Amino acid sequence: MPKRSERVIDYSVFLNGTKYLGTATATLPEITYLVETIKGGGIAGEMEAPSPGQTGAMSLALTWRTMEAAAAELLAPVSHSLDLRASIQTFDTSSGEYKESSLKVTVRARPLGLSLGNLEPAATMETTNNFSVSYLKVDLDQASVLEIDKYNYIHKVHGKDYLNDTRANLAMN
Length: 173
Prior knowledge:
With 173 residues, this protein is mainly β. It is built from 2 helices and 12 strands; from the N terminus they run E-E-E-E-E-E-H-E-E-E-E-E-E-H. It has a single domain, classed as Pnp Oxidase, Chain A, CATH 2.30.110. The longest helix is centred in the C-terminal third of the chain and has 6 residues, at 164-169.
């Protein structure tokens, strides 16, 4: 593939898909599978076995340069639907041209807290919202590459739903 990703050009945060909140540095969720150490007959020692589709707690942090009205709004104890939209700089090695790709990260998240940050002359405050994430979707160039919906037993990676059989076995389909 001649296209190489290089960096984020810029990004924005939206509430409910349309309300522009500004730009906050986002620490995106880390996805880890729940694991169990397996040992016994048929295994030479121990190994960690992940449970496909079952993930650990996911979190999101949004850090604002100063205290923003959006930071206070996102402290309301309800589930918030947030879109983080970015433009990714790429370089096409075959044409020698810079191009752009779109990145959209959608989360449904509940607030865990708000750090008001620091007051210091000529410095950013670093006001930070922290969230617990129950839904995550990642789109690259309008194509879904990841979708995790904990409440609806969905765990899609490049379109394949690794919890489809689980939903069927639990009569949830």
